[in-house]
Amino acid sequence: MIDCAIIGGGPAGLTAGLYATRGGLKNVVLFEKGMPGGQITQSSEIENYPGFFDHSKTGMDFMDTWQKQCFHFGLQHRLEEVKGVRKEGEHFVIEIAGKEAVEAKTVIVCTGSTPKRAGVKGEDQFFGKGVSTCATCDGFFYKNKEVAVLGGGDTALEEAYYLSNICSKVYVVHRRDTFRAAPPTIDRVKRTENIELILNSTVEEVIGDVTGVTGIKLKSTSGEERILDVPGIFVFVGNDVNNGVLKEQDGFLCDVNDRGQVVVDLKMRTSVEGLFAAGDIRMDAPKQVVCAAGDGAVAALGVISHIQEHS
Ligand code: FAD
Ligand code: NAP
Q: Which ligand has the minimum distance to the alpha carbon of residue 237?
């Protein structure tokens, strides 16, 4: 039986592995269905991770050294997809696609989240080259430029407001004339001079060239078409938490909130003893690398205490 199974090898999972192995656990396995690194490897730059300030480096370059460091102290890596986690008595059973299940004393779920895509033509082609799902990460690249935001929920309007402080103008494109966002958030956006609402409209296509996005093609519900010349579009049409491994026949292995995020305490403990969650998967996650890494460290320290107390 392994001491700890870490599911997901993004910033949270890798950091959890580093702290668990460096903290003395001998048998720690990181299950990652792709190459370790997580969502940030999709980013062309990272500017807000303290201590890393090199504009020429991509998210992939950034995570490269994480792997070297995090595997240095004995963390084992299995390039496998976890299908589910069950609790049997005092231990956990990790079900792996096409392989024999593995037993573990503790589990840290770090499977992250996936921003939804709007399904617009050109969106995938220009993702990371003008199409973004993270204003905190990429907003600064559009300093004093005009950008578009797609969506009408809390995230879209909150992020549009954030961008209005950086960009010369923010167009919010929403398919209806009423918003899902909370009334104070809507009021604040409406009161912001450099935010223009384009309602009852959809984005038909993201247009660009080798340099990236150059504009978006809009269509109103009355059929009028228009091109907006913007170098960036932020898509905020909802977010999926990758909680599939915790799903059971009648719900989830541990408590999740109404958005499917795992409920944790300040030690990243879930409602099930020995099961921890860290990073974007957990409730109220700020969805930042630095926060996911911090969560991973906290969860690993919790795992070490748990194993000491139960051995
Ligand atoms: P993730 O990074 O989502 O990693 C989860 C990992 O789990 C993935 O590697 C996935 O393959 C794996 N996984 C999922 N399910 C399974 C399974 N069943 N079995 C095995 N493995 C599984 N944040 C910043 O701080 N600064 C930035 O500049 C920044 N830029 C960004 C740019 C882009 C384009 C995106 C998409 C995000 C950006 N972020 C940025 C956000 C940041 O990347 C995330 O907050 C962070 O990666 C979350 O880390 P995590 O470890 O919780 O999850
Ligand atoms: P959301 O509430 O699901 O809103 C998604 C928005 O995107 C909606 O306006 C929706 O339009 C639009 N949309 C969806 N698919 C689209 C598509 N394919 N093309 C164009 N538009 C599309 O998502 P969210 O804003 O990320 O919020 C998720 C949850 O988190 C919500 O419960 C929200 O209240 C909460 N949240 C809360 C806070 C806060 O409390 N401060 C902050 C952020 C998020 P329609 O409206 O027409 O469906």
A: 2
